[in-house]
Structures are given as C-alpha cells and as structure tokens.
What we know:
alpha/beta, five-stranded parallel beta sheet, globular, FAD-bd, oxidoreductase, FAD
Amino acid sequence: MPIKTAAIIGAGIAGLVAALALARHGVRAIIFEQAEALTEVGAGLQVSPNASRILDTLGVLDALRPIWLEPKEVRLVSGSSLRLIASVPCGNFAMERWGSPYGALHRATLQKALLDAVMANPLCTLHLGRPIDATNRQTLDAAIGEDADLIIGADGVWSKVRALVPGGPSPHFSGNIAWRFTIPEVLTPGALDRTSVMAFLGPSAHLVSYPIKENAAFNIVAIISGSSASHDWNATGTKAQRELLLRHFADWNGAITTMLEQQEEATFWPLYQASAGRWHNGKDVILIGDAAHAMMPFAAQGAAMAIEDAFELAGMVASRPLVEALDRYEKHRTPRIARLRQRAAFNHFAYHARGPVRLARDLVLSVRPPQSLAADLDWVYGYPAIG
C-alpha cells in the first residue's frame, strides 16, 4: 500500500519541497528541524528550469517570479582580461526552449516561499528546535513520537539519518574552498554584469557573480583549491586562509582583486561531497538531496537536484508499495546524479584550466554559438521530473 505519513528530518530546501510534494498526493508530512528558527546560511542560488518547473507545479513559483532576477544569459569570462569567452542565453530563451524560467535569488527567499507554503498546507506539520538522534531506529522513533510509514533524511551532507542506511554514502573533503559574500549593488565594480550570471575563469580558481534583485545586491562565490578546515560553513576564515584566497586571484583583473581584498566578512566554506553508496535501507528510510549525493557546485545544480529528488520521491512512494518505490526511486535517480557529477567534474577542469589547455578551451568555446551551448544543457534543464 502507498504510504499515509512521512517523517522528514531537516527543513532545508529538500525537506520543505518533500513535504509539499507529499501533501500534493494526500500524504501527511511531519518535518523535524533542529534549529530554533529557519535562518538559511549561504547567500544566493540559481534555480534552473528543471527546478522552477517543479516549484510551479507545487504552487511556489508565483511568489518568486516578481522578486527574483531572470538573468539575460550565463556568461563565461576571462578573469584576467574580462574578455567574453562564451555565453548561454536565458531570459525569454529559457522559457521558449525549456518551458520554465531560469531565476537567481537569495537562498533565504526560496526557503521563505517554501516555508509559507508548508505552513499554509493542512497536511504539513513543522517542528522547530527538535534535534533528532538517528543512531538507531528505536531512538529515532522515540524522538518522532508517532508512527511514520517512511523516514526521509533531508539533513544535508552531515546527515545523521545516513547512519540508518547500511552501505550509505560518507562525506569527504573535495579539495576546494568556497568564499561567499554579497556586496551592495551600489558598490559593485563595473566588471560585474547587472543582468546576467557571470563565471570568471582563471588558473586553479573561478568566481561566480549574479545580482540578487530582491536585496539590491550581488552574490559572489570565489572557489579555490585548499586544505580542509572545520565543518563550520559560516566561518570568516583565518588570516592565512584569506591570504591564500588573494594569492589565487593575484594575477586577475584589478577590479576583481580589489573587490576581494575589501571583503572582510566573506564566509569560508570547505566544500564536502558525498561518496557513492546506498540511499535507502530497503524498508522505510531514504536519503535525499545532499544527504544522499552532496556534490561540487560547478554545475550549479545542488538545489535543483534536491528539488527533483523530493518531487520524484513523493510521486513514487504515493503510488506504489513502499519497498518497491524506494528501490525504483534509487535506480531512477542515480544515473542522473552520476551524470551531473561528471558534468561538474568537467566544468571544474575547464574552469580552472591553465596553459595550453586554457587556450584550447577558449578557442573551442569561442567558435560555438550560444544556441549550440544551450543545446548541451537540454538534458539538464529540460528534464521532465516524474511526480
């Protein structure tokens, strides 16, 4: 029989979307979040058409479109000369080609829209300030306090629910550090385009910028290679770590290096990813989002994959016997996640290329028209999620 009640551990994007998607099928969703309040760390994110299509189905997109930015294009630019290398059109082109918009916004904006929808849905219940001990099923059941047909681990890369999945993934440091900050639009250097997502490329480093319209600011993410640090994703970094950041960008265009030198409040995020492994226990526990497959941000699909996971899982567990649904879900999702990991690894190689490889990259990209580059993304952005 399809399930009637699911307990969701974690009230991030994956958990909130899972609750809404389950409720759409008449399944009651109880969300447990250890934080006393939902204050999302991080800064901006990109919502590509494969994800915005799902948000539209769940009735959330209408709250976002008036306040987010729909970038005109995604531009690849030389970090030293600021020369345009290649671009992929978005804006109206995204609607025409992929049937749904491409948006950029603050992470907290998306989370609030999802939270408002959850709080308005009678089939969704959210418990804040409820840390869950998931070291074994007995303690988990006691913490939940009621019977649930399914436990969904949406608790991120450091998932505790993962302990209930034999042979599940494990987190490991990727060898990359992300520095994140926002900068008021009035203080933004002219090198940053106010209508587009920009990826500035350089040897062993790259920097992504895009406007966050609702905050009148720019979101900046600078990614470099580095050594692991703590698991704190909201640290400001040590003096030595900041010096390492600036060394990676020392030969870049002066406007970018000056911008980085001025950001004393930038947050230091060691990037961890999850290894391959099982996502469910063969019975009644499943992992989604970063808990199952945290990956590097080089394809800008982390949030989108969490949204897809939640939506497709809900459709499967609401229409099939649970064990069959969990197995079908994992077999259905793992090839797509594996392909996106490969795409992210390729982007990492291409973005951080140096010497002859960099020259070859620039030449190949420069001769391809924007529509051709967009066609390469049809399998990502045009994906028809099953819900």
